[in-house]
């Protein structure tokens, strides 16, 4: 009887964690145990692995009187999911002498079916990135995950359909006796293909609402959060869906970052995330599903919307603590989650698009229908709201592509400005008070106009600075080096009307 060691990995928060799998076989009555903090899915791999080995043409571990101990290290890391099936099977077969290969610099990932078929896993991209960082040269995993793993340069990817394919590829014993080994073809490097995205809505499809369209264009250009306020049926949801089409295309680093996040969450389904995400959770969604968390912290909707749009329809109907918890991701572009069994910081740099009715029944201000809400209901409803901007108007049917060109150009102007000042931010909405003093220069006349308007409207310091950011974005859309009076005046139109 002998010992063998093979390497695998699992998702740990948004990164991969290398796991060493050791198998020791000794004489005695049959027993099969897995140690190293395995969860139920890992512990059940004993039966999956035994069935897969038997149905791949080898003797089942359960057919022998032997003690099998599988150790997963580091021992203090909770092992979750079916990532280790392939590695455990190969480690056992190596220890039992059924196969001979050098396990160093190789990493094995994948769930096994009882027939030996390899099934897909989540989090492939961060796992491949971690393997590359730790010096591994080859990675073996299910065929359906191979394209995602091949986004990582500098590591050879082999996508297999079954345990038998992997064994035939790596078995050195078969080579030494002249056996015919079936080789797995290397997965070619995956190139990001920005194929035409199927649009759910286009601005040209929306008639009227000219003021809303202008406000959304400014929000997209500067990365500003927005809210739409109006009766049901006025096009708030359609405008929000069309809004995501205005955001600039992602670069390769952002594609890798987003694909990794969505792969870990299981929402990528083996596809690359090549466009800014649009997430629209229902107002009955739980706090954990939106903010993130759980016993072992997992990303929520605010992280899945990273570098994209988080659309919250019927905004006041969300749980109060969900609305209050949005403050950190909106201000810091991260969400920090602490639990008894771990803590995590997830990225959450998104544009919030909130839509709401004027009152619980939706008829306040309507000329056709009467509002039936009690005054106390109206007060409670308004107290739940964060700051919002009132948007509305007529329309000219301009296509989203034309607006996107202006938005992209404005974003490029901002990036150049931030680079000049040595700032590692990408949009005007991310500027702090110090940035505003150095990057938003106002003439005395324009400064006096802003100060007078702020005093007359009773703007808070936060609303004052927000007006400056929006004015800077409007100037960028017009390719104006300086913020002029007309930019300030337009920005003031979008000021918060509640809790300024």
**Strand segment count:** 17
Biggest sheet character: 4 strands, mixed
CATH level-two architecture of the largest domain = 3-Layer(aba) Sandwich
- The helix/strand class is alpha/beta
Classified by CATH, the class of the largest domain is Alpha Beta
The spatial strand order of the largest sheet comes to 1-2-4-3
Helix content: 25-40%
Could you say which overall geometry the principal axes of the C-alpha atoms support? elongated
Range of strand content: 15-25%
- CATH H-level homologous superfamily name of the largest domain: P-loop containing nucleotide triphosphate hydrolases
| Sequence stretches where pLDDT stays below 50 over 5 or more residues | 385-395
Average pLDDT over all residues: 87
CATH topology of the largest domain: Rossmann fold
Gyration radius (Cα, Å) is: 28 Å
Instruction: Please tally the helical runs, counting DSSP H or I stretches of 4 or more residues.
Output: 20
N- to C-terminal separation? 74 Å
Q: In the residues, how many domains can be counted?
A: 3
């Amino acid at each position: 009887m002998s010992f063998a060691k093979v390497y695998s990995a699992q998702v740990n928060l948004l990164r991969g964690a290398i796991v060493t799998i050791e198998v020791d076989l000794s004489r005695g009555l049959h027993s099969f145990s897995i140690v190293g903090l395995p969860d139920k899915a890992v512990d059940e791999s004993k039966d999956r692995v035994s069935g897969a080995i038997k149905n791949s043409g080898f003797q089942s571990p359960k057919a022998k009187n032997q003690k099998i101990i599988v150790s997963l290290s580091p021992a203090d890391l909770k092992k979750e999911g079916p990532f280790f099936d392939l590695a455990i099977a190969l480690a056992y077969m190596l220890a039992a002498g059924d196969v001979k290969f050098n396990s160093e610099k190789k990493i094995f990932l994948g769930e096994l079916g009882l027939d030996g078929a390899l099934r897909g896993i989540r989090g492939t991209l961060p796992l491949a990135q971690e393997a590359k960082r730790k010096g591994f040269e080859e990675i073996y995993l299910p065929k359906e995950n191979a394209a995602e793993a091949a986004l990582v340069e500098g590591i050879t990817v082999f996508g297999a359909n079954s345990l038998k394919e992997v064994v035939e590829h790596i078995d050195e014993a078969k080579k030494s006796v002249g056996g015919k080994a079936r080789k797995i073809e290397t997965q070619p490097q995956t190139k990001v293909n920005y194929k035409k995205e199927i649009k759910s809505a286009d601005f040209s499809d929306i008639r009227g609402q000219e003021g809303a369209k202008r406000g959304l264009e400014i929000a997209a250009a500067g990365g500003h959060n927005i809210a739409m306020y109006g009766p049901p049926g006025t096009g708030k949801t359609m405008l929000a869906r069309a809004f995501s089409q205005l955001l600039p295309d992602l670069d390769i680093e952002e594609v890798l970052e987003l694909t990794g996040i969505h792969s870990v969450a299981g929402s990528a389904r083996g596809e690359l995330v090549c466009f800014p995400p649009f997430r629209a959770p229902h107002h009955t969604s739980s706090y954990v599903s939106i903010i993130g968390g759980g016993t072992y912290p997992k990303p929520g909707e605010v992280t899945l919307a990273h570098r994209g749009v988080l659309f919250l329809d019927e905004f006041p109907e969300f749980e109060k603590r969900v609305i209050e918890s949005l403050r950190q991701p909106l201000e810091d572009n991260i969400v920090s989650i602490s639990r008894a069994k771990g803590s995590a910081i997830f990225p959450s740099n998104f544009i919030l698009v909130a839509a709401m009715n004027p009152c619980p029944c939706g008829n306040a201000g309507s000329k056709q229908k009467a509002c039936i809400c009690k005054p106390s209901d109206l007060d409670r409803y308004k107290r739940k709201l964060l700051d919002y901007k009132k948007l509305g108007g007529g329309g000219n049917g301009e296509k989203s592509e034309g607006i996107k060109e202006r938005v992209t150009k404005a974003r490029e102007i901002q990036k150049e400005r931030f680079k000049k000042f040595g700032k590692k931010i990408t949009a005007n909405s991310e500027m702090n008070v110090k940035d505003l003093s150095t990057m938003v220069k106002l003439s005395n006349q324009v400064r006096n106009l802003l100060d007078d308007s702020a005093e007359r409207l009773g703007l808070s310091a936060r609303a004052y600075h927000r007006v400056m950011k929006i004015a800077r974005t409007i100037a960028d859309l017009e390719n104006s080096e300086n913020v002029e009076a007309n930019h300030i005046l337009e920005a003031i139109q979008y000021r918060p009307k509640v809790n300024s």
